[in-house]
Amino acid sequence: MRASRLNITTLREDPSDAETASHRLLLRGGFICKSGAGLYLYGPLLQRTLEKVRRIVSDEISSAGGLEITMPIMQERALWEASGRWATYQASRTMLTVKDRGGQEYGLAPTAEEVVTDYAAKVVQSYKQLPVCFFQQHTKFRDEIRPRFGLMRVKEFIMMDAYSFHDSEASLAETYQAMNEAYHRAFGRCGLEAFAVEADAGAIGGSGSHEFMVAAAVGEDAILYCPESGYAANVERAEGAIPAAPAWVEPAKPHLANTPGHSSIDALVQSLRGRYPDLSAAHCLKCVLFVATVGTAAKAVPIAAFVRGDRQVNTVKLTNALNRRFKSPGAVTDLRAMRDDEIDGLTGSAVGFTGPGFRAPELVAASVSEDGPRRQMGEKVVVVCDERLRDARGLVVGANVPDWHVVGYSVPEHAPASMYFDDITTIVPGDACPRSGLPLHEKRGIEVGHIFKLGTKYSAAMGATFMAKDGTRQPFIMGCYGIGTSRVVASAVEQHHDQDGICWPMAIAPYQCVIVPTKSGDAAADAVTEALYRELLAAGIDVVLDDRDLKPGPKFKDWDLIGLPLRVVVGRGVATGTVEFKERRSAAVDVPIAEAAAKVIAAVRA
Amino acid sequence: MRASRLNITTLREDPSDAETASHRLLLRGGFICKSGAGLYLYGPLLQRTLEKVRRIVSDEISSAGGLEITMPIMQERALWEASGRWATYQASRTMLTVKDRGGQEYGLAPTAEEVVTDYAAKVVQSYKQLPVCFFQQHTKFRDEIRPRFGLMRVKEFIMMDAYSFHDSEASLAETYQAMNEAYHRAFGRCGLEAFAVEADAGAIGGSGSHEFMVAAAVGEDAILYCPESGYAANVERAEGAIPAAPAWVEPAKPHLANTPGHSSIDALVQSLRGRYPDLSAAHCLKCVLFVATVGTAAKAVPIAAFVRGDRQVNTVKLTNALNRRFKSPGAVTDLRAMRDDEIDGLTGSAVGFTGPGFRAPELVAASVSEDGPRRQMGEKVVVVCDERLRDARGLVVGANVPDWHVVGYSVPEHAPASMYFDDITTIVPGDACPRSGLPLHEKRGIEVGHIFKLGTKYSAAMGATFMAKDGTRQPFIMGCYGIGTSRVVASAVEQHHDQDGICWPMAIAPYQCVIVPTKSGDAAADAVTEALYRELLAAGIDVVLDDRDLKPGPKFKDWDLIGLPLRVVVGRGVATGTVEFKERRSAAVDVPIAEAAAKVIAAVRA
After folding, report:
1. A-chain residues near B160 (CB < 8 A)
2. A69, B98: Cβ pair inside 8 Å?
């Protein structure tokens, strides 16, 4: 390709709104052009990179047994009603919807479990056809609240989504593993250092899932990992033990303490320090109140979540814990903080002084109300406590009465019967790895892929069955698998750039090599340029000849920014029989003209 | 690929709702699967064919200078407001629209003139960068009233759309011609017999356009052509002369004729035959009434269109004629038949007896109203007459009074000054070719591509300019070009099938060859099968090995239906050193085992 025909349009200045390297460099290099909020046009250079990523992904997923198909972007509402996800996605407002002139409503593909399950039900009759796996690489949509970071968080993006169908969990496990390996190969071929972490399954659902992360400081996900055991998990899901609270001198018997206005953990601890000098936040029971939207009827359910005073409630874990409580994976469609003005009405408690309730109030001197600290919050409140506190004693808890706390609360003895336990605490670096017990470390990552064991969530709901070996009809056991094709590209830039621009991995570079003639018009140099260009083209190298009417300086700057892996400069060296060969991150070296093509070809094929 | 892994699911019976060969065979072969009205999932076999078509198209458009990009599907309303097409597409209701959670509205790409013009304005600054051409192959949407014919008329489809930018009409003409040639090469490589015809530019607009048609009996478009001159045009746009009306004995002076209840041309002619035995429909002036929606204010304008009594009004031509009248290419956003109950009120005339009005009513005996036939229809009515009738005399026309016509009307003498002339008649086979004057023939076709000279329609409206050679800023002169990628596939099936199934052209067949072993378990035969399979794979042939546990009969039926170009049967011939080689449309021949691979390779590369 001759550069004069490529409409190269680089920007000298960093765009003001670009916060990350990939956003900045992809804009500056003309790879992307904003067409609307969260909407990008992919320019000619990015198109080539995307196509290369697509082929690598397609190749690896095919070799793991996937059959490539294309599903419609417009998905009939009836399909989403059948799986029960229409309500979930309406509640979260992440799905864009469209109505046709006949009034029929559609979701714009955020993912395609419903469509593919419907397809499988039509084209797979018998266990003899299983396992089977279908995949596509197609545009997906998400009604993103706050699009940002260029291609990272957008309304429209390209995703590889695969769906496997099985007659046994063992068969699913086999494909899940094959996909895991295919992902590692695909990311590796794209030049990405990616690693798998345990992840939450979110709105997709299912019994297990792993995310594939690319380590990057700008990553939106926090990952906790143990170098010793190899354990790694998204913070949304990471398990682990938290260090025991330090010992303190507890009261012999629970008593009420007047804590006027001390509604925060910090203030509370400060106010009680006079009497209990060893008291710390770890001895308090923190109450966080939420309102959950539950079920297709969108019932508002008040939730009181309790974690140790020095810890945070993990809302992803809490949502899952509530779903388990309601015995339905997608029961909770929304979870929001309770507003102060709702607390009295919904919980029967008091803002800042909410507690779990007290099984034996007579143990506490009844100085603040008729029956001392209130027995419990309103009956409708779901009371959930982190499982790590199941046996905790000597705690400070709200008395459900303004300006009063109880000191010396014991969960096993005092907690009301309605309280249930689950893992709802956010694990932090330094907590103990669930495998090795050693401290967990943290790094940030960009999610580029995700694999899920779905089980029969969709097939059972949609009545998608096959004839099993024993002659009965059984719902498909399913897995699903996603790779953010356009995100892979952005992540590659995050991992491979320097102060001058992008440094594309060879396999996904838009072109592999550029030839820059710096003595155009010199007959000998021009002959070398043309001969080298033709030789590289003939060898199947993706080569650009920079025939633009520009000085060498701006040309070099452009190619450093655009980031092709190889550059050959044909200039004054021709007189002495050499050209200059340069790998993007190395110094230039002179090579004999006759060896230049071989040098490029070897570097491409390395 | 082993067939056991391909999830082949063929249907023995024709689907009841499939009206065309491509719809029927693509469904039966498992190429497509309905996912909703006008929405199809493309199965693994179709995916491969589509990918091959895509690459051919991409290859040819690139070689004509196109740079491949990807544009967003969601297109901001503001862009469509800027071009003025938001109103047009809302009126025609062909564009699907979506709102995001912030209330921002988008059109789902029916085409992408707005987005690409906005892009060009950002990345093309100077005439030095021109000409430049961007293209994509991406999903498009259309809110189809009545989806049908499988992939032919759907809500969602794949289209190649290219857009070229120029600084002169000459440059546009050059690219237009290069695209025309690229189209011919691309369709030819896909095995399609396609031909270009003059076409109407429709909602895209511009100064000239050609459609590329594939001849097919089921085609929705009628094409008129002249074998002598090479003229060919869509009937929507075809020009031509119509044979002169036969001579008849006209009255010396126009007079009123009582024609009670004779409101149709046929009844009218019958009723006047007693007095004028030579009278025919060709001597009548037919009035067809419409209501046009005009301009952004969506004003309803009554239209009276006049054509010869034996001819039809061409609504596409009429729309263009009205746009010319209103001096704005997209002025008319809708055109519908006037309802009977509107006629009195809107035209001031009478249902069934409307006429153009009469410049000199005193020439006609005033027996039916004070001043004879009414002078004209209401002032607000736009009166347009086919230009072929500019000099017509001796006509029978409605008197604008119930039950009366005027006989002996002369357009040049009697027509009111408000009447204007344009080409609004539908040309039919037998009419005279505008080039040769010989009779036009008709055939039916499927539109697979379209090219347009847009001029500055979009760039001027959107303020998309470049720095011209003379230093002034000029709007881009544009062209646009479309190929219905998924339609190409369906058209290929229409052109290439027989009673047993599809007969794919080699270049776009999902696989090129199938090996069918009919003596599985026989060690010698199995060895030949595997060796041949491996040899063909090694040679880069797209080969399927049918390892399914089925009898030969059903296998052969499947492959005839699926339509791969080549079949090799490895069976009893192995004992005597042969296998059976068969091209899809020819008889099977025995070939020596050692020559089988070479035979396949030669047929693929032929």
Report:
1. none
2. no
